[in-house]
Here is the input.
Amino acid sequence: MYDKLLQYIRSGHDFPQKETEAVRKYFEPVVFSKNTVIEKAGKVPQYLYYIVSGYLRLFYTDQNGSEVTTHINCPPGFFTSYSDFINAAVSENNVECITDAALLRISKENLDILISKSQAMKDFSISVFQQSIAYNENRSKELSVLNAEQRYLKLMKDYPEIIHNVPIQYIASFLGMKPESLSRIRRKIIN
Here is the structure.
């Protein structure tokens, strides 16, 4: 599990070999079953997760009691309710395993310790959070300028593995539409 994380870190950053032991020390391996909520709304998110395998989603429950999926992630990548995790704030979001998932997790306290001991890890962490901000800004723009079919086609092109591994109701919610609308779009594309 750690090898995948270290490979991910090194893919875009210089990361000294001597600092790999700190990563192994502070990241804890965990495995969760499908449909397990690993961070609950109404609480401060406890961990930042690195996804080794599996699919996770971030969702909240709206005023009508419907679940709204705001983010879906697959390996490799980090996942949590970022702003709430960083600010130690109570989150309105849940983090759920859509599939069985193998993860490495780190608490905010341990992340702060790791960052204080390692300039390379500090630089990498800043990069991860910057990517998260850029992704969220881009996603907001896409939701406002692309129509439903364009959003689905973009998801198919950029993340085809999500189409094959995530239930349609979560994909539809993530794309800002009802499952019936997504089913119509999928039929149209197939025909």
